[in-house]
Amino acid sequence: MLRLLTIEFFKLKHSRAAKVITITYFVLFLFIALIASLEFDFAGIHLRIADQGIFNFPYIWHFNTYIAAFAKLFLAIVIVSMMSNEYSHRTLKQNLIDGLSKKEFIASKFLTVFVFALISTLFIFVLSLILGLAFSDYNEFSIITSDLEYLLAYFIKLIGFFSFCLFLGILVKRSAFALGFLFIWFIIENIIYALLKYKVFEDDRIADTIATFFPLTAMANLLVEPFTKLDFMKNAANQLGSEFVKDYVVHWYDLLIVCCWTVIFIYLSYLLLKKRDL
Q: What is the total count of domains within the chain?
């Protein structure tokens, strides 16, 4: 395992673009901390973002993981570029000549995906803990350690998404086309969902249930937007005579669906590599 990781990080170490994008990815996380310093006037009222409860425990676990998940596209570029470089620089063929099996090659890529997801999760954990201890109104240990399942959901979401990107990188071979295919797949999922909802089934719940099994939708369902949980959002809705009815819970079956897709993407990546003439 260590040998496979060493090989992959040696390649990344000598890729200037990968280093720049990866550093940018983690630097973007620090911009979450800058949110605390934002202040503005609204309707004659002076507001500071940090005072609105977004850094309160345990809400911060949900908020920070949801915001940080948007930055995953940066590492997606690294992953598809990593596969593209294997073909363009012929390092894949050289690795196989040097004795690395195709199964070990896929394992090395998945380990890289796993490490990226793990480091990202640990980074968000530490950042959220620091911001929470600095700004949260609630610092009891039991409150701090509640809702940590959002970190697990974030970790599983990253592994699933990066595994999908790895599969596309192997399938398409070109990073730009792989990222384009990712966007097209997103559109396809939404078109299918719209057809199911408005043309096939009269009951919207059936279409919603089917859509939960789509890969990108399943990943999105792991972390539902957290903004409507804030008190000032609820108060604003109540003043308008409405209320937010949403399920913010991280469900085990959503985690299971994404884990299943991860296995499928990795297995398909192996099948493609196994059958392809290199």
A: 1
